[in-house]
Amino acid sequence: MKHFFVLIFSLLVSACFQAEPPVDTKNAVDVRQENSALPQQAEESARAFGAEELYARKAHDEVISDVGRVVKILKDDNKGARHQKFLVNISNKITLLVAHNIDLAPRVDNLAVGDAVQIYGEYVYNPKGGVVHWTHKDPNGSRRGGYIVHKEKVYQ
User: Fold this and answer.
1) CA-wise closest residue to 65 among 106, 96, 22, 107
2) Per-residue pLDDT tens for 114-142?
3) Domains, the chain, ordered by start
4) Which is the most buried residue in 19, 74, 83, 130, by most CB within 10 A?
């Protein structure tokens, strides 16, 4: 049932996913340096992968940890659980749709195109790059939560 929900969710949000032209961004090293106060993930129980590897494997329900730049702010999804949505360019090859649950975590403040972000959550493949969700703590405490880092502030 969980996989069915995730599949339906990814299909719904991928309908909102719009292709973007290549964006002139700083490289990932520069983005990481901009976010010097990122949480350390050395003790994570689940191994996290970068977007390029997950995309190449067409991964589903795997942990992602990566950094990139916001290329587009989308309208909030207010049907059911509310989600703040935005597109993050990881590389010239990968753009991710981030669906951040704002019923379970605070909205990412003052998010703007060009901002560097780090994302840690659950990745779901789609041909346009993928969707990242579970960027918040698990309210039931049964699984490792995710987060978003923006301007040295952690949102979870």
Assistant:
1) 96
2) 999 999 999 999 999 999 999 999 998 88
3) 2-155 (2.40.50.200)
4) 130
